[in-house]
Amino acid sequence: MRTRRTSVPAIRTTKASAGGPRLAMMTAYDEPTARLVDAGGVDLILVGDSVGNVVLGHEDTLRVTVDDMVHHTAAVAAARPAALIIGDLPWLSYHVTVEEAVRSAAALVRAGADAVKLEGGVNRLEVIGAIIDAEIPVMGHLGLTPQSVRAFGGFKVQGRSADAADVIRQDAAALEEAGCFAVVLEGVPDGLGAAITLERSIPTIGIGAGPATDGQVLVFHDAMGLGAGTPPKFVRQYLDGATLLTGAVAAFVADVRSGGFPGPAESYVTSEDLRSHLKG
Ligand code: KIV
Asked: Across all residues in the chain, what is the average pLDDT?
């Protein structure tokens, strides 16, 4: 069992592309899932705003609030994982004023996050600087950033043209310069994921960014086969969780209907005294 908490400085210097181990990150939104992914050995647990899609049943992440994220971050922190806990700043919690952004980040830290993640590049440098200035480590997120789904006109791979790729490369450079300790690259061509990984000294963590990034992240429900609908191309499903869990529920229903549950082992035995008393 791992006992020591992973630290931000340790993650900051873990570059697989420079001979280090590859980083594994997975989402969790509650205490039991945090225990499972931590026991599985992930380096980082992301309390993602994907909670909106995969837990709350929304079509995108835009309805998720700071209060939602505080609630789920606290649940994950209750597992006391060895993995670093990253709290995702939801849409509009860091877009209006710098002060509000710092307060949103602080709310996640007070709930138990070790660091926060936010989406955007050059357009978010002021906010990133202020959050880091408040001693809160920041992970960046570039490419197919889900909070920009309306602006992108859908969940579309980003950085496919030379110009678009260069914008993302410049954003990655700016995030490193601003002091981000790592950056998520989502939904970009594998060559761009590889180029940014080589160019940057901070670790890149990919999701749909090819195999060359310094680490990989998956949404727990996608990886465990618990999602609704067809998962995106970049998902590898490690378990048919929906079939397994539905089968277990169906077995419970069958046991209830047949009277086979509960049995003696699942019941509190009545003493002889009480039995006589109950018979009257
Ligand atoms: O919210 C989330 O799960 C994320 C990952 C897709 C990186 O931001």
From this structure: 97
